[in-house]
Amino acid sequence: MAKKIERRNSTIHGNGVFAKAHIKKGEEIVEYKGELITHAKADAKYHGDLDTGHTFLFSLNEKWIINGNKDGNIARWINHSCAPNAIAFVHEHESGKLKKDRVIIEALRDIAPGEEITYDYGFEFDVPYTKALKAIWACRCGSPTCTGTMLKPKKRNSAA
Ligand SMILES: [Zn+2]
Description:
- The protein is mainly beta.
- Helices cover about 10% and strands about 25% of the residues.
- It has one domain: Beta-clip-like.
- The strands form 3 sheets. Strands 1-2-10-7 form a 4-stranded mixed beta sheet, with no helix packed on it.
- The chain is globular.
- The structure holds zinc ion (ZN).
- Zinc ion (ZN) binds next to loops.
């Protein structure tokens, strides 16, 4: 894993991760690594990320967040796309210990050498989606189905 990819400049955003070799559909590309911190700590320490349009935090499960700022690897440079060629799967550990869950980025389809690796971040922030916030988290993936934002529409309660 991770040998088939490299980090370089991206037209989507800053750095990106690109295939160096052919990657097959379903193949594991790389694990998203980093220090495990609680949601409370992430909120306290990285709340400012909201205003930057960039984050190295990955929500692992209800208890833990992977903090790619510390002990992170190349996976933290993978950009968001509305038409991604990869997906981030949370692999729940058989022991049920939340701390042992892992995130693996896998290919959604065959990926050719030179293609940028992307997945759908699926961000949902617990704040109002103002115009300013949407502008900060604007998507520039360039796909025909681009929604223009990395923010996921909020789910409404269907309590009717
Ligand atoms: Zn897009």
